[in-house]
Amino acid sequence: xxPADATALRDWMxxxxxxxxxxxLLAALSAAEWMYRTWCTDAGDATRHPIVTEWxxxxxxxxxxxxxxxxxxxxNQHGPQLSxxxxxxxxxxxxxxxxxxxxxxxxxxxxxxxxxxx
Length: 118
What we know:
Blueprint: H1 4-19, H2 22-43, H3 50-60, H4 62-78, H5 84-110
Helix pairs in contact: 1-5, 2-3, 2-4, 2-5
């Protein structure tokens, strides 16, 4: 079984995929992907496991950075057209996505590996 922090992120993103508006999906994906791009770009060339290196390289690649920039630009273009309440709702959704992402990654360091969660 996955740790609760991992399933919380999964369930959050699946619910948005099923029922979210374009702006909600854009806010959530922008939060997650911007976090990945920032972290991976800042990670540098430290010695790491080959699978981790591949993951970092993918999220630091120019094509990925361009995708994140497009999402952020798209979000910023839609923002002024929204009501103040909708902007507040998207800010909260963006923030909650980041919280869940951080909890998801933190779970890898705090959840003991057992036969049932490998």
